[in-house]
Amino acid sequence: MGILNINEDSFFDGGKYNSIDKALLQTERMLTDGAFFIDIGAASSKPGSPLIKPEEELNILLPILQALINQFPETYFSIDTYNSKVAKEALNMGASMINDIYAGRIDSEMFKTIADFRVPYVLMHMQGTPKSMQEQPQYNNITKEIKFDLIRQIQNATAQGIRDLIVDPGFGFGKTVAHNYQLLRELYSLTDLNCPILVGVSRKSMIHKVLNTSPEMALNGTTALHAWSLERGASILRVHDVKEAKECIDLWTALQ
């Protein structure tokens, strides 16, 4: 899953692809490099970010999404949103799935929207909100607590008619560096949920804080964690650097 951030304040590459021409070029590059999905984010969710209103999000998203669908009509576009109004507009336009960091908790209409359109839906775990999530995250047993939380949301989603679910443990979303590594070490336990597992660790602080470097210098560390994620049950890698991630997947597949 190639990341296409089109909000100026997005993590790592905010402002690089926030025009139609830039978004088209980056999408073509990611597809050439082997991306299966393109995940479009018009709202920033990096630590400290406030919520975005649906109208503001739509103003950012729709012109670029329309251009992308026109240019790449066979591509699977995922929309990274927690607003059901945005999800509905994007799905009507031709998007293929929704990636929701709030897992349906912030918008009571989200589950109904997904069920009506019968599209895949990513449920992510997050403690708190992006604005406050990294202030003091605490768990007694992080993997068990995340697993139980995801089970509750899977039950809620399926009760409302959603059938195609993907789970994301939410690396970096309300978790310390130590929490993230315990979660990665125990990732395989989430395979009991019988949903594909999406892992998003690309260039995050759990890498560059350990290596004492920066997000710009964290590609090698990202690739290492991608390999370990695949070995522990990940089905989808959400990445900024598609070529390197695809090579990791190809080598891991050969190893099997």
Can you offer a commentary on this structure?
It is built from 9 helices and 8 strands. The two termini are 21 Å apart. It is globular. It has helices at residues 20-33, 54-71, 84-93, 110-117, 142-159, 177-185, 205-211, 219-231, 242-255, and strands spanning 2-5, 37-41, 76-80, 97-100, 121-124, 165-168, 198-199, 236-237. The chain is an alpha/beta fold and 256 residues long. The protein has one domain (2-255): TIM Barrel, CATH 3.20.20. Helix 3 links the parallel strand 3 and strand 4 (97-100).
Number of strands: 8
Measured between the Cα atoms of the first and last residue, the distance is 21 Å
Which fold name fills CATH's third level, the topology? TIM Barrel
- Helical coverage, percent range: 40-55%
**Corresponding CATH superfamily:** Dihydropteroate synthase-like
Biggest sheet descriptor? 6 strands, parallel
What number of structural domains do the residues give? 1
